[in-house]
Design a protein that fits this description.
elongated, about 375 residues, alpha+beta, five-stranded mixed beta sheet, about 25% strand, disordered C terminus
Length: about 375
């Protein structure tokens, strides 16, 4: 029975009983296709025609073989091993606005990192204040000057009463912030525990600890500071240029869309700002850094998108609309008042009417008015 030879380049049928070592003329190599040339790796002949390539005689003699050559293994696809990557285009402004978190979410205090240079500067200020002679009427750490018994601590939220030198050793629990009254809500800016009851607001326990202040401090000045901001692909950095900030009395709070800044610097100056942010931030990964010349607030972006500006335009737009509406309302009220004044003038008694009445032409002014009606 004749069998088919599967050696490359042979393809003839053979009798197994007459299969000698020189019966088969074949190619032991493999086909090569490079540019337009075609050939076998075992011999040097090359051609551009595929029919000629198939008719190239073998270069090696051997036995015929009726075994099919193994199928070449397909190379492993790297795309199967690699995870699927989904590329998502940028979100539209409408979608971002719909997905924007509420500005009424709870605020969290951002962690504060104080630089070594600022700590040294604050220590120098503390030493210089101790070297100065103590002013009469201010309580030091061990001296009591003209403080009457029964004097109440002047720190906000503390109700301690001065009973003698031992009162200076007690811990003062107070509110370092300022009272805020907004839309019926009452709270302290340092802890933001809101209530509508004024008595409950007065009874709120302080959120900070320190020393008592028996005599009234000099009022702090609310000032404005130069601000700047820049961004990277993952962060937004807000800079407030306030010299020698006091870390113990300053704080920065935020939720995912609102930033509340309260900085006390140079002893008696206060900077406050509340920003409605353009984008959404990750509060847990945001922080504050204080140095002698400025305060840097690093906000981690929730998604790596470029911010068009620092503040959300909607808040400014609404404020502008409200101002324009108020101005239009005032203008309409002023116009109505002017029309009313002109109407009153048209019913007044003129000089000509007075002369005609005196010449005996008519009636009294009141009768003229009544007849006109």
């Amino acid at each position: 029975m004749a069998l088919l030879c599967y050696n490359k380049g042979c393809g003839q049928r053979f009798d197994p009983e007459k299969n000698t070592p020189d019966s088969c003329l074949h190619h032991p190599g493999f086909p090569i296709f490079h540019d337009v040339l075609k050939g076998w790796s075992c011999c040097k002949k090359r051609t551009t025609d595929f029919s000629e390539f198939l008719s190239i005689k073998g270069c090696t003699k051997g036995h015929h073989s009726n075994e099919k050559p193994p199928e070449p293994e397909a190379p492993e696809s790297k795309s199967k091993a690699s995870p699927e990557i989904i590329v998502q285009g940028p979100k539209s402004a409408e979608m971002m606005e719909r997905e924007r978190p509420s500005p009424d979410e709870p605020m969290k205090l951002l962690p504060v990192k104080v630089s070594g240079s600022l700590e040294q500067a604050l220590k120098k200020l503390d030493l210089s204040s101790k070297e100065q002679p103590e002013v009469q009427g201010i309580v030091g750490t061990g001296a009591v000057l003209q403080v009457n018994l029964g004097t109440t601590c002047k720190n906000s939220g503390c109700k301690a009463v001065y009973q003698g030198e031992d009162s200076n050793m007690d811990t003062c629990i107070f509110h370092p912030g300022i009272p805020v009254f907004h839309e019926g809500m009452k709270y302290w800016s340092c802890c933001a525990v809101k209530t509508t009851d004024f008595t409950a607001f007065l009874e709120q326990k302080g959120c900070s600890r320190g020393k008592h202040t028996w005599l009234k401090k000099q009022d702090k000045k609310l000032v404005s500071c130069r601000q700047d901001w820049h961004q990277t692909s993952s962060q937004v950095v807000v800079t407030v240029y306030a010299k020698t900030p006091l870390p113990e009395l300053s704080f920065v709070k935020a939720n995912r869309t609102v930033l509340d800044i309260h900085i006390i610097f140079e002893g008696d100056k206060v900077f406050q700002a509340e920003l409605d942010l353009w984008g959404v931030i990750n509060v847990e990964k945001s922080s504050v850094t204080m140095v002698p010349t400025k305060v840097e607030i690093t906000l981690q972006k929730d998604t790596p998108v470029t911010w068009a500006r620092l503040e959300h335009p909607q808040s400014r737009f609404q404020a502008k609309q409200q101002l324009e509406a108020n101005a239009l309302e005032r203008q309409e009220a002023r116009g109505a008042l002017e029309e009313e004044e002109e109407s009153d003038d048209s019913l007044s008694w003129s000089d000509e009417d007075e002369e005609q009445w005196q010449e005996g032409q008519g009636t009294t002014p009141s009768s003229l008015v009544s007849n006109g009606n």
